């Protein structure tokens, strides 16, 4: 059994368990804005199931586990052109992610986390950013990163900033913030992949808390990039194991 089939089997095995599991702790730790990682992690013995639907009928499933205090590990796999009428469905290579919160922060200093995110988006684009029958990605993996997060100015307004080494080669910056209103909805904004204006990505969205352990996101990615802009939906469920 190759690795893609193994990861797909694991995802299929765990997903029904997530749907039937008892509700976990409330989603109070925002580990991601949209694509930008914050310094927060899931608690030990928590599991997060994140399903993202995005451009060209692609569906990605990400599973993250709080295996140790402050440490999360996870795996992701995507199927390209799964949604819709295409007969050319492709299961893409699986990726993994890990995060370690090294400092909780205090009144003056932000929380700090380091990690690695191997997820890639925009399968099928060539070097000229044209959608073809290519095996390349429009958005490369974030790679290794360090991120700083804290609440600023008013309660509920949280800011994040950090830097990452994509494929351990090129240095990029990212920043973002979210504002949570009455524990019902969050407004999301981020500027990712900052090295030059052409390659950077501006994303905005909203997060709706449907249940203490269930959240639905709607967002627009790559704003101002013409045909590269996309609308995404993602749903996240958090439970204990």
How would you describe what is shown here?
This protein is mostly beta strands and 241 residues long. It has one domain: Beta Barrel (Porin), CATH 2.40.160.40. Helices cover 7% and strands 52% of the residues. It has a twelve-stranded antiparallel β-barrel with strand order 1-2-3-5-6-9-10-11-12-13-14-15. The chain has a two-stranded antiparallel ribbon with strand order 7-8. A hairpin with a 3-residue loop joins strand 10 and strand 11.
* Biggest sheet: strand arrangement: 1-2-3-5-6-9-10-11-12-13-14-15
Q: Uncertain regions: pLDDT < 50 for 5+ in a row?
A: 1-7, 16-22
> Briefly, what CATH class?
Mainly Beta
H-E string: HEEEEEEEEEEEEEEE
Determine the fraction of residues in helical runs and give it as a percent range.
under 10%
Total strands: 15
CATH architecture type: Beta Barrel
Q: What would the CATH topology be?
A: Porin
What's the alpha carbon Rg, rounded to whole Å?
A: 17 Å
Tally of DSSP helical segments: 1
Spatial gap, N to C terminus: 27 Å
Molecular shape: globular
Q: Whole-number average pLDDT?
A: 86
Beta-strand percent range: over 45%
Structural class by secondary-structure content: mainly beta
Assembly annotation: single chain
Specify the CATH homologous superfamily.
Answer: monomeric porin ompg
Let me know the largest β-sheet.
Answer: 12 strands, antiparallel, barrel
């Amino acid at each position: 059994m190759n690795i893609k089939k193994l990861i797909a089997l694991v995802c299929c095995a765990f997903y029904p368990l997530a749907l039937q599991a008892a509700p976990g702790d409330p989603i109070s730790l925002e580990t991601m804005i949209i694509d930008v990682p914050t310094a927060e992690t899931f608690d030990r013995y928590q599991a997060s199931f994140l399903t993202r639907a995005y451009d060209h009928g692609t569906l990605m499933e990400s599973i993250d586990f709080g295996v140790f205090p402050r440490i999360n590990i996870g795996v992701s796999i995507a199927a390209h052109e799964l949604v819709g009428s295409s007969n050319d469905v492709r299961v893409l290579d699986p990726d993994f992610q890990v995060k370690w919160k090294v400092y909780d922060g205090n009144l003056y200093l932000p929380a700090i986390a380091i990690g690695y995110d191997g997820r890639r988006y925009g399968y099928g684009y060539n070097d000229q950013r044209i959608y073809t029958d290519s095996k390349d990605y429009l958005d490369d993996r974030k790679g290794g990163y360090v991120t700083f997060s804290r609440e600023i100015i008013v309660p509920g307004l949280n800011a994040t900033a950090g830097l990452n080494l994509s494929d351990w080669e090129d240095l990029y910056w990212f920043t973002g913030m979210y504002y949570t209103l009455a524990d019902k909805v969050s407004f999301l904004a981020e500027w990712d992949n900052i090295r030059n204006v052409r390659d950077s990505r501006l994303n905005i969205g909203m997060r709706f808390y449907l249940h203490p352990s269930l959240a639905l996101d709607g967002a627009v990615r790559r704003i101002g990039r013409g045909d590269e802009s996309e609308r995404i939906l993602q749903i996240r469920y958090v439970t204990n194991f």
